Amino acid sequence: MTPPLLSRLGIERPIVQGPFGGAYSTVRLAAAVSNAGGLGSFGAHRLTHSEILDTAAAIRHVTTRPFALNLWVSNRDEGGAHPSREAVLRMHEALRPYYAELGIDPPPPETKAVHDFEDQARAVIEARPAVFSFIFGIPSREIIAECKRSGIVLAGGATTVDEARALEQAGADVVVASGFEAGGHRPSFLAAAEDSLMGTMSLVPQAASAVRIPVIAAGGISDARGAAAALLLGAQAAQIGTAFLACEESGAPTLHRDLLFDRAAGRTVLSRVYTGRLARAIRNRLPDELRGARLLAYPAQLWVMSALHEAALKRSRADLMSLWSGQSSGLLRWRNVESLMAALP
Ligand SMILES: Cc1cc2nc3c(=O)[nH]c(=O)nc-3n(C[C@H](O)[C@H](O)[C@H](O)COP(=O)(O)O)c2cc1C
């Protein structure tokens, strides 16, 4: 039987391409997945109002199918948008050996603009994608009501059963239940991410029993077996991240994509070291060697680490970069969307 969610979303296959923040999402990737009958997504949390509108227009230029735009409801932790100069300099001091290894000077302590979620959400509503997916919280009643008026399906990310219930109560149309196998950030919002570590196998059936709205399963799904298992567990679709990140259409650098296929590099770790928020990446030197360091809050930690990441990327130094990956990268075999989608239900 075709899950009711598919007709609601206007898609033919129970496959959602997980949105990627930063420069990892591309118009090409989202459109390729939508054109293949799944739901392509674009992670827009680092985009301005006008960039969000431009992105939606660019996607519509290459597909007439439904797609999702994704935002982060909470995009700063306490002290993370305005870190003290001392705290930033202390982090630079902890990173000094790496700057020396890469032959760069510590970057000047700087704060960057943090986007206003409400303003970004208004851009999404104006852009009218089929789906507005969001993580790290629940949008205001006004935003939810406006989406409903505009016929935009609201899909909220949950890492626990309590979060799934909270999303349903607030008016979300779909829950994306994300197990800790997933690559990228743990988007917990009711309790600390470290206290919200449920695996997909446990989370999905419990979330599906706890709420009446449809559930999409995310985390650790990288092939047809995982997608079929997600449906058996009570989900109506599978959201796949890492396997799409590994496709040539994604915005991941070639070095990163190649490492996703490298079985030796396939061990992952959940760490706050890369951004200040708990996230899963290929294990390298940074989480272990910076274990005792006093990290900054999100996004200040990300700002400090970005300079190191860029320098390491230029020198192909995988040991000093953030290399996002879920736990199921060991299953990857597909280098583009066409072959991956052909292997999925
Ligand atoms: C590089 C990267 C960036 C991500 N950025 C976002 C994001 O901005 N918003 C979001 O809802 N999920 C984000 N995710 C989570 C994915 O959309 C997806 O749910 C997850 O990767 C699924 O688990 P898997 O990697 O095991 O397939 C990101 C994942 C990765 C790997």
Secondary structure tally: strands: 11
CATH architecture of the domain at 4-76 and 114-253: Alpha-Beta Barrel
Q: Helix share of residues? A: 25-40%
Question: Radius of gyration, Cα only, in angstroms?
Answer: 19 Å
What is the third-level CATH name, the topology of the domain at 4-76 and 114-253? Answer: TIM Barrel
The N- and C-terminal alpha carbons lie at a distance of 13 Å
What letter string, H or E per element, gives the SSE order? HEHEHEHHEHEHEEHEHEHHEEHHH
**What ligands are attached or bound here?**
flavin mononucleotide
Structural write-up:
With 345 residues, the chain is α/β, with parallel strands linked by helices. It has a domain at 4-76 and 114-253: TIM Barrel (Alpha-Beta Barrel), CATH 3.20.20.70. It is built from 14 helices and eleven strands. An eight-stranded parallel sheet has the order 1-9-8-6-5-4-3-2. A three-stranded antiparallel sheet has the order 7-11-10, with no helix packed on it. The structure holds flavin mononucleotide. The site of flavin mononucleotide has 28 residues, from strand 4, strand 9 and helix 10.
